[in-house]
Amino acid sequence: MTPNTLSAYTRGGTPWIPTYVESIDPRRCIGCGRCFKVCSRAVLALVEREASESLEEDDDWDDDAETTALMTVRDPMDCIGCGACGRTCPKGCFTFSTP
C-alpha cells in the first residue's frame, strides 16, 4: 500500500480499501438497472443500445426487442469506492481499480 492510498477498517476491524468503478463490459450488461439503483452518487447512467449490438448469449436477453438498456459509467470521479454496484451485478460486468 502506498502512503497516499486511502484505507479504513470496518466495524468488525477488517481492513477495507476502496475500489473505484473503472468500466462496465457492454457485452455482458443486460441493463437490469440493479447497479444504478444502489449507487448513491449517480456514477452510472442508463442508455439505449440497438438490439443488433454484440451481446453474450444469455437467456435474459429478449430476442424480440429492437432496443434495450445498457449501463455506462457517467462520471467515474463521483465514485466513492464502495463497490455496491459490482456486488449487485448478476453478470459481473464491472471492472474496478484501486488508487
Write a brief caption for the model.
The protein is mainly beta and about 100 residues long.
Index terms:
99 residues, mainly beta, Alpha-Beta Plaits, two-stranded antiparallel sheet, two-stranded antiparallel ribbon, 2 helices, transport
Counted beta strands: 6
Terminal Cα span: 10 Å
Radius of gyration: 16 Å
Beta fraction: 25-35%
Oligomer: single chain
InterPro entries: 4Fe4S_Fe-S-bd, 4Fe4S_Fe_S_CS, FdIII_4_nif, Fe-S_Ferredoxin
Cofactor: [4Fe-4S] cluster
Organism: Thermochromatium tepidum ATCC 43061
Domain 4Fe-4S ferredoxin-type: 20-49, 69-99
How would you characterize the overall build of this protein?
- With 99 residues, the chain is mainly β.
- The chain has a single domain (19-55, 65-97), classed as Alpha-Beta Plaits (2-Layer Sandwich).
- Helices cover 10% and strands 27% of the residues.
- It has two helices and six strands, in the order βββαββαβ.
- The strands form three sheets. The protein has a two-stranded antiparallel sheet with strand order 1-2. Strands 3-6 form a two-stranded antiparallel sheet. A two-stranded antiparallel ribbon has the order 4-5.
- Strand 1 and strand 2 (15-16) form a beta hairpin.
- The protein is elongated.
- The protein starts with 7 loop residues before the first strand and ends with a strand.
- The model has no long low-confidence stretch (mean pLDDT 84).
